[in-house]
Design brief:
Its EC number is 6.3.5.5. This protein has about 375 residues and is of the alpha/beta class. The chain is built from 10 helices and 20 strands. Bound molecules: glutamine (GLN). The site of glutamine (GLN) has 11 residues, from strand 16.
């Protein structure tokens, strides 16, 4: 099959906040965009990455050199739109090829007004971010002067201190029915929830009441939940107070809790720990994490730029019980999970910094949804 002629090439410019400049071609929508430059090392799952609300206000650099081969389908999105504020690839596929593909990546970016750039040396850009840390960036197909774009990058918003989950959350509560026999009811606070999370709960007989990020403790209790869940989400956990207070109220009321990613960071804050910004974060689908409960190492999907500052060894006494770090990233010893136990040593709540709901995978961590079900069963019986 002959390849179609490349679309008319329009130059684009990428300028980091420290002045480093890359030149490439406009990819997706034309125009100008700003955000925090971060890199993802996943070799597959670009559609899930683009539609993950946790990437709100971030410009994602793909380290995979060739992106777009399988096009865009209607089954894999994690939400109803693309959330990244910009997209950087080296070599976009000119022809998508998959039986599920209904659009091309470039068309979807253009239709959803997402500005991207291609033809960039993404390896050099990633090495720069790894050495200097995640930082603000601008991409433009309308500006040709790097100094002028840099001035606008320096005026754009920072990720540290940004409270973003309410901007991406559902406005209205909705219910995802349990598949088969209903075993539990969960109140899931949407801080940027991915579609696969309620799906994986539903498959385990959980009826999921997805609530807006602004939900109150009364809204949670109105559902009579067996468990409370906080999702992943964008922004700085240190800038989020309302949901931390909600979580503390639920813990006082004795509701078992499970949190993922942002939900792990807010759990840490509710228990009295601080959070901090990692130099360049963890974003990819092959990060090794040890589950200290079983001693097993899982290969896991990550997308986080912040982390919980909790002691790796021993337990910490809080008004809610004894807390310990349950999971650790083997690359850099970053806290990847927390667990809370009562005075008898029984698990009452837990959370992980990584993604048991990960699509395209890996699926090593899917057992955590079973752990949540077991926890709700045990607390119901208690
Ligand atoms: N995926 C997430 O929930 C990300 C959490 C938080 N915004 C971070 O970057 O660390």
């Amino acid at each position: 099959m002959a390849l179609p002629a490349p679309a008319q090439v329009r130059p684009a410019l990428l300028v980091l906040e420290d002045g480093r400049t890359f030149r490439g071609e406009s990819f997706g929508a034309e125009g100008e965009t700003f955000g925090e430059a971060v890199f993802s090392t996943g070799m597959s799952g670009y559609q899930e990455t683009l539609t993950d609300p946790s990437y709100h206000r971030q410009v994602v650099v793909m380290t995979a050199p060739h992106v777009g081969n399988t096009g865009m389908n209607d089954e894999d999105p994690e939400s109803s739109r693309i959330w990244v504020s910009g997209y950087v690839v080296r070599d976009p596929a000119r022809v998508p090829s998959s039986w599920r593909s209904v659009r091309s990546l470039a068309d979807d970016l253009r239709d959803q007004d997402v500005v991207g750039i291609s033809g960039v040396d993404t390896r050099a850009l990633t090495r720069h971010l790894r050495e200097r840390g995640a930082m603000r960036v601008g991409i433009s197909s309308t500006e040709t002067d790097p100094q002028k774009l840099l001035a606008r990058v320096l005026q754009s918003g920072e990720m540290a201190g940004a409270n973003l989950s309410e901007a991406v959350s559902t406005q209205e509560a909705y219910v995802v029915a349990a598949q088969g026999h209903k075993r539990f009811t969960v109140a899931a606070v949407d801080l940027g929830i991915k579609a696969n999370t309620p799906r994986m709960m539903s498959e385990r007989g959980i009826e999921v009441h997805v609530l807006p990020a602004t939900a109150s403790i009364e809204d949670v209790q109105a559902v009579s939940p067996d468990g409370l869940f906080f999702s992943n989400g964008p922004g700085d956990p240190a800038a989020t107070t309302r949901q931390v207070e909600l979580l503390q109220g639920a813990l006082r009321a004795g509701i078992p809790y499970f949190g993922i990613c942002f939900g792990n960071q807010l759990f840490g804050r509710a228990l009295g720990f601080g959070t901090y910004k990692l130099k360049y974060g963890h974003r990819g689908i092959n990060q090794p994490v040890m589950d200290r409960t079983t001693g097993k190492v899982e290969v896991t999907a990550h997308n986080h730029g912040f982390a919980v500052d909790a002691p790796l060894e021993g337990t910490t006494t809080t008004e809610f019980g004894e807390v310990a770090v349950s999971h650790v990233c083997l690359n850099d010893d970053v806290v990847e999970g927390l667990e809370l136990r009562d005075a008898d040593g029984a698990l009452t709540s837990f959370s992980v910094q990584y993604h048991p709901e990960a699509a395209a995978g890996p699926h090593d961590a899917a057992y955590l949804f079973d752990r949540f079900s077991d926890l709700m069963r045990d607390r119901k019986d208690a």
